[in-house]
Amino acid sequence: MKKYTCELIEKLNYQLKIIDLEEENIFVKAPKAIELLEGTFVELKSFVFTYSFKGLEEEIYFFKDIKPQLFSKLIYYRKIYNIETIRPNGSLESQKAHFKKELDHIKTFFDRNLDFYKYYRTGCTHFDKYYFVRGKPDIQLNLDSFYFERDPTFSTSFDFKIAKILANEMLSIYLNGELVKLETYSIQPYSAEPYSPMVKLTWTGKKAELVEQIYGWEGTSCFNNGNVNIKELTEYIEYVFNINLGDYYHTFLEMRDRKGSRTIFLDKLIKYLNGRMDEADNK
After folding, report:
1. What does each C-alpha distance from 17 to 32, 113, 121, 223, 268 come to in angstroms?
2. Superkingdom of this entry's organism (predicted)?
3. Contact present, 195 and 136 (Cβ < 8 Å)
4. CA torsion, ordered 148, 154, 156, 161, to nearest 10 deg
């Protein structure tokens, strides 16, 4: 079961990454991601129907870790799509109010589920046999009304709540990122230079060398906890380093077709850094 679910998650994350790279418009990106996630869930559900868990530990692992990890992404993209669909077209203040209202909803959810949130985030396990095993739940548990509408063969009393927690954490990052953009525009509405580093440096290496690093940074979620797409990150780096990288996606495709090492510049950096540290050690 672990092998199957790990491969499924790896494949899904790769496909979501491709969608993020190829689509900039959220009204195109979100539906594609939702369709992909819904299809993955159909596949996962079919697997569970034909699979017999090898005991409570494996069943708890699936409903506490695997299913919420996937379902949270579906909740997230659906919510993002809905939020952007009703985003006001008016003033910056009305847009800020829109996002702040959504953040208030998230805070209310966390406040109402604080005890369970602490239980989950601190790694507690003593109630797992009640929370993450299929069957009739204890009537004293504080269940979401949504629970009673779900398929009991593919749901437990609290797997949806974990998915909601994970989705809301991702959503908070997205909403705060949008607020930062609006705040920046409010301060400098007519500025052609939204970023102002104290020292202006110019990238004088090869463009492909910089693109290697940008894709590495984006893939490892080094900026804004991963809440930045490749276009936003590239535009920022282009401005900071005073360079136009052109069709960076085409450059990425050329990197993938390289013979031998596909990360020539990153390999060069590793070799140089190791050499410098060895030199320092020998002084």
Report:
1. 12, 31, 27, 16, 26
2. Bacteria
3. no
4. -80
The DSSP letter of residue 136 is P
3-class state of residue 243 by DSSP: coil
Rounded to 5°, angle at Cα 112 from 110 and 116: 75
Residue 134 gets which letter from DSSP?
A: -
Q: What's the CA angle centered on 225, arms 101 and 205, to 5 degrees?
A: 130
Local structure of residue 48 (DSSP, 8 states):
H
Tokens describing residue 5: 């679910």
Q: What angle do CA 203, 206, 207 make, to 5 degrees?
A: 80
What are the contacts of 44-50 at 24+ separation with CB within 8 A?
44/5, 44/8, 44/70, 45/151, 45/154, 47/4, 48/153, 48/154, 49/153, 49/154
User: What per-residue confidence (pLDDT) applies to 180?
Assistant: 83
How far is it, in rounded angstroms, from Cα 32 to Cα 233? 22
Structure tokens at 262: 């596909």
Overall pTM > 0.70? no
pLDDT given at position 139: 44
Q: Which two three-digit tokens encode residue 244?
A: 């136009």
Position 199 scores a pLDDT of 58
Residue 183 CB contacts under 8 Å (≥ 6 apart), including other chains: 96
